Amino acid sequence: MHKATLDYAKQQDEFDELSIYRHQFHIPTDKHGNELIYMTGNSLGLQPKQTKAYINQELEDWANLGVEGHTEAKNPWLPYHEFLTESMANVVGAKPIEVVTMNTLTANLHFMMVSFYKPTKTRYKIIIESDAFPSDKYAVESQLRHHGFNDKAGLILWKPRKNEDLLRYEDLETILEKQGSEVALIMIGGVNYYTGQYFNLKRITELGHKHGSMVGFDCAHGAGNVELNLHDSGADFAVWCTYKYLNSGPGSLAGCFVHERHAYNKDLNRFTGWWSHNKQTRFNMRHDFDLLPGAEGWQLSNPPILSMAAIKASLDIFNKIGIKKLTEKSKKLTDYFEFLLKQLGEDTIKIITPENPEERGCQLSIQVLNANKALHNELTVAGVISDWREPDVIRCAPTPLYNSFQDIYHMVDKLKDILKNEIE
Ligand SMILES: *Cc1c(COP(=O)(O)O)cnc(C)c1O
């Protein structure tokens, strides 16, 4: 049984074999130099201390070698993306041929829909979760319009029931039983950004495939947070960013997964560029197009190496620990977080994230009775970096790489003080 004391939290940190990794990250500080309690690894992950050296390596090679760096750099730039593939595949539970790092997240979502949203006159609808991340909703709406469909009529929202926050699979089943023959694509956020609900990707995929639909996931809140097992899920595609739990810096490149069953399918329509062309003949320039197999066959451009260096710095840490061990610690951290929050009184605090550890990652979305943004501001002043989402939700994501049990203890302690002062 947990204890709501600082001594207990300290003890948990001493037992934790991953606690050493916190020192490999830059923890932001206040203006007096005190470390802040950083709970927003789900928004922008912290900087690994080794990132600077990885980027500097490429800056130096560029300075010393110029264009020759493409082949002569310590990590040659031509195949640089390949240095990320295996680690990235491990993080998301995929085979190397299924994974590539390229573009940015919403761009990848569009490129995937070019191939996997193939509407006909009668089967053209797209299902997304009603509280999807805005960029995802805008992207699927614009795909509908691009193909000449009405984006209201073509979009089916999978909604929570009245007075509920989480989505139920039975309701998705009902949608598909009624309209399954009209659905061309199911595109769901693998872990919902707002509630933190982690969906059963395999279950959704099987359901979609049974009704003849393609199935893809936006795993921005899943990659580096939960064991996604993308290959086993059977999903047709998935996309994710690397600047949240994968700590690769603001606006960094994104990941993309295409299931192995599509790896050699040259008939799938797609947008191509020279980076989707055979590596052996790419620089002969005058060859007819010769498609690369696997996820790499969706690349267009030679990628930004400085950003890839930051991804490599981060993935090397993930690789050392392994996503399994990380999620084990994550479950302990979030369990403790939930325990402490519940001590504040279930009439004051409601956690909308699922209670079942298999249905969530590290994030807890906390609804505080009668709260408004002032509460979030007070938390910030008290040194807690959290995330506010209208109308009344604070999202906190203690990440196993750099958050400690003491962080969690202090965060809840500060929240308790703020709530107490409000009542007095
Ligand atoms: C963070 C996030 C985005 C952001 O998209 P960018 O293209 O990286 O700006 C989109 N969708 C989801 C689900 C996200 O969590």
Automatic annotation (TrEMBL):
The modification N6-(pyridoxal phosphate)lysine is found at residue 244. Pathway: Cofactor biosynthesis; NAD(+) biosynthesis; quinolinate from L-kynurenine: step 2/3; Amino-acid degradation; L-kynurenine degradation; L-alanine and anthranilate from L-kynurenine: step 1/1. One of its GO terms (molecular function) is kynureninase activity. Its EC number is 3.7.1.3. Gene3D superfamilies: Aspartate Aminotransferase, domain 1, Type I PLP-dependent aspartate aminotransferase-like (Major domain). One of its GO terms (biological process) is NAD+ biosynthetic process. SUPFAM superfamilies: PLP-dependent transferases. It holds the Pfam family KYNU_C. Pyridoxal 5'-phosphate binds at residues 105-106, 133-136, 218, 221, 243, 274, 302. Keywords: Hydrolase, Pyridine nucleotide biosynthesis, Pyridoxal phosphate. It is an enzyme of class 3 (hydrolase). InterPro entries: Kynureninase, PyrdxlP-dep_Trfase, PyrdxlP-dep_Trfase_major, PyrdxlP-dep_Trfase_small. Its cofactor is pyridoxal 5'-phosphate. It catalyses: 3-hydroxy-L-kynurenine + H2O = 3-hydroxyanthranilate + L-alanine + H(+); L-kynurenine + H2O = anthranilate + L-alanine + H(+). One of its GO terms (cellular component) is cytoplasm. Homodimer. Catalyzes the cleavage of L-kynurenine (L-Kyn) and L-3-hydroxykynurenine (L-3OHKyn) into anthranilic acid (AA) and 3-hydroxyanthranilic acid (3-OHAA), respectively. Belongs to the kynureninase family. This is Kynureninase. It comes from Flavivirga rizhaonensis. The lineage of its organism: Bacteria, Pseudomonadati, Bacteroidota, Flavobacteriia, Flavobacteriales.
